[in-house]
Amino acid sequence: MGSAAARWSELQSGRGVPAEILAQAPVSPWGHNPADFTAPDVPADTPSRAAGLALLGASGTVTDVGCGGGDAAFALVGPMTYATGVDSQQDMLDLFEAGAAVRGVPVRTVLGPWPDVAGEVGTADVVVSHHVLHNVVDLPRFLDALTAAAGRGVVVEMLSEHPMAWLDPLWARFHGLRRPEPATVDDAVAVLRELGVEPEVTRWERERSAPHAPEWVTRRLCLPPEREPEVAAALGTVPPRTRTAATLVWRP
Fold it and tell me: What pLDDT score does 209 carry?
């Protein structure tokens, strides 16, 4: 493991929830509500969409790793002839299939974590993966599998830093937990370079807001529902969740 990969692994491992805090959580802080991941009817005109369309050209197939509701893949409707959605949550894959049916796009889905299911997924012309890297600890294995699955290129979208870093002051306030610095886009690019990949990097501001309601934050902090008013008050003291994003593009 190179130094950049080791740094990424160390920073990501430090974002976990200690067992003693997790044991007190009334409900699991993990998982995502599919309602928060429904793809918009009209895709946002982002650098990630432009990069995917450029790689597809007149037509091509797409694999969407960590597809959620299909935001990344469905932004490529038109030249995209077929899509494979990969996700660890079946309800996300159900949402992906429903979105494909509305758009008249032929798709298939594969349930399981990437890259464990990469062999079942196979290859596509373009591989997209939006807002997944910050869920990964072993980044070289994840990235190598993305590259191997792409015939023409890979498009990754991620926030400038770990998407939960904005909650660090609240972890300190409610649990006395001091978080390490968050992994960033620059850290991901450094890992790619260790793998011999020089990505094209475009930094931009994301319009779509990620979940940040008090109820959602209370669950993420492993606190019971009756602490929600305290959390709501505390949210007013921390900087808002970042919308600064980056698109990373590379070719096999």
Answer: 67
